[in-house]
Amino acid sequence: MGAIFQSLGRTVTAGVVLVAIMLAIAGTFGRMGEHGYWLFFMRWLHVLSAVMWIGLLWYFNFVQIPSMPKIPDEQKPAIGKVIAPAALFWFRWAALATVVTGLLLAGMYKGYLVSALSLQAPNQAIGVGMWLGLIMAFNVWFIIWPNQKKALGIVQVTPEEKAAAARMAMLTSRFNTMLSIPMLYCMVAQQNGGL
Question: Would 129 disulfide with which of 45, 90, 160, 187, CB 3.0-4.6 Å?
Answer without folding.
Answer: 187
